[in-house]
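Hey L., structure's done. Input below.
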Amino acid sequence: MSNKVPTLQLSGLELLEITPETNFVNIGERTNVTGSRKFLRLIEAGDFETAVEVAREQVEGGAQIIDINMDEGLIDGIHAMTTFLNLIAAEPDIARVPVMIDSSKWEIIEAGLQVAQGKSVVNSISLKEGEDIFKQLANKIMQYGAAVVVMAFDENGQADTLERRVEICQRSYNILVDEVGFPPQDIIFDPNIFPVATGMEEHRRNALDFFLATKWIRQNLPYASVSGGVSNVSFSFRGNNTVREAMHAAFLYHGIQHGMNMGIVNPSLLEVYDEIPKDLLTYVEDVLLDRRADATERLLDFAESVKGTSKEGTQQKDLWRELALQERITHSLIKGIDAYIETDVEEARLQVARPLEVIEGHLMHGMNIVGDLFGEGKMFLPQVVKSARVMKKAVAYLQPFIEAEKDNDNQSAGKVLMATVKGDVHDIGKNIVSVVLACNNFEIIDLGVMVPPEKILEAAVAHQVDVIGLSGLITPSLDEMVFVAQEMERQHIQIPLLIGGATTSKAHTAVKIAPISNNPVIHVNDASRAVTVVSNLLSAEQSDNYISGIRTEYHDFRNKFLQRSERKQYLSLSAARSNALQLDWENYKPTRPKNLGKYSMTEFPLDRLVPFIDWTPFFRSWDLHGKYPDILNDKVVGSQATELFADAQAMLEKIIDEKWLEARARWGIFPANSQGDDILIYDPEQPERQVASWLTLRQQLQKKAGQPNLALADFVAPTTVGYHDYCGAFCVTTGFGTAEKAAAFEAENDDYSSIMVKALADRLAEAFAEYLHQAVRQNFWGYAVDEDLSNEELILEKYKGIRPAPGYPACPDHLEKETLWELLAVEETIGVRLTESLAMWPAASVSGYYFAHPKAQYFGLGKITEDQLEDYSHRRNISLSQARKWLSPNLATD
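Output:
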């Protein structure tokens, strides 16, 4: 019997044997669409010949195995994998090395195994979906004669501690060797390399636990190898290649010392361990080996010096620390610097008789200056939110001292209850208003989102608030606000009511809410007005005159508005339909989609969305008005916009690198025809079987001669033409993870970061919608394969086709979302759900339709009359009262 130790043997055209004496095997990472933008662009463009050159560069750079991954939702992974493997098989200088077939989809892995030459590695399988599937896949891999990478992942998630890594790897090994009969030398464990130096306490041992898990595996799981994606460890330092390359080299050095014998790296960009500057190496290894509690802070500071930040500049920045105490506190508040506030507040506390005096004196003095500067237009909203973060940190520090005195004499300027109404999930604007009011010494009771009327009124009475603020983004929220006002009247609750949010308006407030309420009702269209409005409402000297003036203003506005509405002329529904858009359907040939049916994407790479971001609405959400990028050079707000943009870029990098958020998408393309104002949707597999009806609404305002009364159905070929047209629908989200991250920031009194992460999640969701629409036009549907538009042109909607959304001007009917959710199985596939008011949750989500006709255009429905409301209620099969509730903002007679 042979005493030879079993070894891992892989091959391309040449044998690669990994023995106990083998030091380390480099696995090239650049032929991976999720890790190389260049490679992804080549594969998307179908430029496989140039993509082959990427593989050649990897082999020439020292890669002993090449990792090939085609996991991109918008390319045909099976086709891409087999095409690429067949091409490199014809290149002897590449084909000499083994390949790692890398995918999360078994069908792509199996397609690769069927064409790969030699002995490959499958990356990867795990216990994520349970033991049965794990064993099933392992048996198939064994039948193909491949080795396998096993992730430290089970039914409860990824292993993130030493104990979990050991537990999962031991269990996986036992199943593979004892139950499946898998050769132990063909097992490669990946015990998860996670980022270090993130600033989060739970991440301190990420590298050390990997090293210790590696050592345990090599000592306790005979003949198994250990691998991992090395670049993950340095994500916190993206943009600083000096630090990243040093971290990779040091990580590999210690990983190899502990038994790591394989790894996915870019071999052409590896620093030599002995050539790392000694001071940098010390800081890096302090982090990797968790040798100091302050290792992260020290490395971060040193990393800045590597970037070239001079110590002299730092000293200049800190000169303000030599100012008098009050000036230092004021400076911290104005500049939003929280690094020294606890030190300064403690110094102030020791100088006064009671800790409350620090709040009422030092801190409020500084915040009053902030308020004055904001009111004068010398500070802007993002700066004020940063000031609030410093103020909250200071108050949190003082709170235990105040509690110890059991003193409740802290006098606020007034209590304001804030709530996003029932069914609505959007709260960025509400949170900004809350912060601005809090900065001006108003006590805020924030009830959050989706708050029912009874809870709002119960809390208002219980807390004896002075003002109630209601917020909402979607049109059904308008009715909720009316209902709250009605309930306040019924219960004789006399509290002023503030109305705000994207769909609210002075017109709606003056026409629909103010007439039914004896309380003052005021529309607040931006955060900068909130302090003035609330201060005037609660001022003993100004309140009566202010309220009287508002009532007169709204009364006059209401009369003019109603008179203006009466002057508009509307067509009957039948006359409007007779004036529908007439398109030449006889000579129109719709492009048959390349991919009919329904599709999903999860864990989509967020960095792919960044080029599609429209930044102008981001600045608007912070009350900075101007078009990006011109706003960065604006004479008034340019400086603040630039600072805000820099903060956004820094957080966006963390969102991407640390995977704070998850992007998911669900979409479908279907045969379709119009029938009157309805769009009939058919089963792609059985095109004669109708599976849904989309109900569209038609403009009824009388138009000038020659101008049609539009409905979305006009852009789809009617049933009478004898052929199928096509329509699409979609839902995208980047909101999963947002609420948890925002809550964590709020727990740290960091409203600025909480608002920032929500604003960025919204921008990413809109970018995802833009990205997916482009991909559908060019790839999945393919009616615009030659389109080549810049991001600016995409923002200006220069493309062919439209993607209108239910709840927006062309189709204000939110009930259409229910149809889309059922058709696409949105909640079941990507988890986005609808509230009772049909808002999407998570809030950073976008849904809509796809229309491809070159004459399709965006438009506003405007007002409709009673005859269309009745027709709609019949088509929708709901009562007239229900129809009136959902379409009330669009009713000419309401």
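Confidence is low (pLDDT under 50) at residues 308-316. The radius of gyration is 31 Å.

-- N.
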